[in-house]
Amino acid sequence: MITVWVVLAIIGVLILGVLLSYNGLILARNRVREAFSEIDVQLKRRSSLIPNLVETVKGYAKHEKEIFENVANARSALMSAKGPKESAEANNQLTGALKSLFAIAEAYPQLKASDNFKELQEEISDTETKVAAARQFYNVNVLDYNTSIQTFPGAMIASLFHFTPEEFFQASDEEKADVQVKF
Fold this sequence. Notes:
Largest sheet: none
Structural class: mainly alpha
Number of strands: 0
Number of domains: 1
Number of helices: 7
Oligomer: single chain
Order of helices and strands: HHHHHHH
């Protein structure tokens, strides 16, 4: 009689452990998804500012059509990106296009002095800071989640219920390069 109770207690503890581990993995996976949605929100905010910036610069640099097309294409790619990998690639493409656009602004002192341009630059800079913070938050959650599904006992539960690792949001080689400041 006592052995039956001991066996039932052990089975109960095992079931409770599996449930707690499973729920912990679900919670971690949902945190990763929520963190990615914050990146997505900031990238969409960024891309909605781009048309205003382009229109402001267009008036000063009508002959720079290719750069405006590159910005528009990069913005479209960002808007249609699905998942962390596509979003990271589209974000990197847009970052490169914006660098070209800001280089044009350097050539037009009247544009740099424009209040509209300054305000848009500040908004984009603020958004870049928010994107960086959201990326960091996402990557911390991915690390926690991936660690949970790769360590014991989570690895057993993860394999049983088909939890898969998430990808980190990574910077491109261009974003990692040293910034050169010239006067």
